[in-house]
């Protein structure tokens, strides 16, 4: 499975309203975002569509909650996630960012360097997706730090 390392700049502007229990706020080209949204922005800049899978609140997002309401997935993408969830038996475990470009899909897990680790529920998600004929090429881990 592919793994990449990124370094993000800490947000230095006005505080955001909801930090999701003190998530790091990152400066993405002058915009405050969480790491999941910074990763999504990186892929969007390269022609991908996608969402941050906000498992905490069970929503799909393309921006901070204070800036934009949750979004709906296109039907085919929603069916894929629901099929994987049916195998795991829970909402949690889905990887942080779900992105697609044409027929290509990516599940991207965001892990802060030295603070986060892969959870058992995420391993179960990976196994369930692979049972549905998703391959290792559909998964990516991004480990990130702050400067």
Structure description:
- By secondary structure, the chain is an alpha+beta fold.
- The chain has one domain.
- Helices cover 24% and strands 31% of the residues.
- It has three helices and eight strands; from the N terminus they run E-E-E-H-E-E-H-E-E-H-E.
- Strands 3-2-1-8-7-6-4-5 form an eight-stranded mixed β-sheet, with helices on one face.
- It is globular and about 45 Å long.
- The mean pLDDT is 96.
Biggest sheet, spatial arrangement of strands: 3-2-1-8-7-6-4-5
Largest sheet: 8 strands, mixed
How many strand elements?
8
The arrangement of helices and strands along the chain is: EEEHEEHEEHE
What is the distance, rounded to the nearest whole angstrom, between the alpha carbons of the first and last residues?
A: 26 Å
User: With helices defined by DSSP (H or I, 4 residues minimum), what is the helix count?
Assistant: 3
The structural class is alpha+beta
Choose one word for the global shape. globular
Q: How much β-strand is present in the residues? A: 25-35%
Low-pLDDT sequence parts: none
Helical content class: 10-25%
Q: How many structural domains does the protein architecture include? A: 1
The whole-number mean of residue pLDDT values reads 96
Radius of gyration: 15 Å
Describe, in short, the structure shown.
The protein has 147 residues and is α+β, with helices and mostly antiparallel strands. 24% of the residues lie in helices and 31% in strands. Strands 3-2-1-8-7-6-4-5 form an eight-stranded mixed beta sheet, covered by helices on one side.
